[in-house]
Each structure stands twice: as structure tokens, then as C-alpha cells.
Amino acid sequence: MDMTKIPGMVRTLEFLTDHPERHDQGTWIDTDMVPDSHRNEELGIVKINPEKWDCGTAGCFAGWHSILNGWAPTLRDSENQSMMVKLDKQGRIIDAEAPAIFTEKDLGLTYAESRVFFSSENSIHDLWLIAETITNGQITVPDSVPANPDPDDSDESEWLADAKYDRFSDIKEVKNQMKYIDRVHEETLALREQVRPGRRTI
To answer: What global pTM score does this model have?
Structure first.
């Protein structure tokens, strides 16, 4: 994590905290929810003004971080939504990037940090806890973002089928997950080095 980028990470976390209905960690940006008034069919993009909440769409941390930094999602089926574009002052497309790749580069995340941070299973509390972990406590989970109860500790009948539960209970769990990802990644790279030239890599 590039510690100079902490303000940008906090901005996105605070946006999702203030607008939890806009959080869906399972999709970059759900363009199916965007009305025609926000669509540019000619360019094939969606214009979302983060300062106005009338477009009704939801997305993950990487998707909103990209939008908050001036990127616009492409008009594609939400199941395949994977690209963001940058426009110049004349409205012409000048760059394109996947939200996860832009956010990883912009925040200076390591391989393990990005894989843990971008998981589709993360709740908003998880995102704050991961941020606290990778910034060594420079970001902390605010009191306004309480941990979600563990469904195993409550009456099952009280829980909705689509309820969002926390993936992590503390920083130790986050660190253990990142260590596991790093180990698997290193083993994969080592295995690739063993593959002879001309043979298919993994």
C-alpha cells in the first residue's frame, strides 16, 4: 500500500459507508440499474456523478474508487462489466482500464492486498478492517461501522437469505489470509519458472 494514497482510500470507504445501498462487492458497477438519462449510447459509456445519487446503481470498492477518480463505466451487461474509460474535456475516450487494475495501481496495493481487498465476499466493515491492516493502523474502523453479527450466534430464523455477514472478525484473520495468498502466489511463480520454453504456462 502506498501510504500517500490513504486519503483517496478513505474517501471511497466513506462514500460506501455513507451510501451502503450503493455497495455491491459482487460487481464493478451494475449498469443495468442506470437510467437512460445517464447513458451515452454513442460512446457506449455510463456517466455517473458521484455527487448526485439519482442513478440508482451499486458497485464494489474498485468500481466506485474508479468513478470517484473520474473514470466512467462502459455500457455492457453487468455480468461482464469489466472496463472503465477516461474522457478528455471534449468528451473523447482517451484511456481504458479495468477498475481493479486502476485501483490496485492508484493505491499501490500489493498482490495479496488487492486480492483480499477486492473479494466479492467483503462487507463494508471488512473493507475498513482490511484498510486498517494494510495501512498499519493509519486508517481505523470508525465506530459508525459496527461489525455485522455472526449468523451462527443467532436464531437462524432472524436472518434473511441475502444478508451480508463479515468475512473477517479481526486484523489477525486479514493478515493470515494475505500470508496464504502470498504463499500460493509464490508457489505458482516458482512452478512457472520450472516450465520449459515452448510449453504452456499455468
So the answer is: 0.76
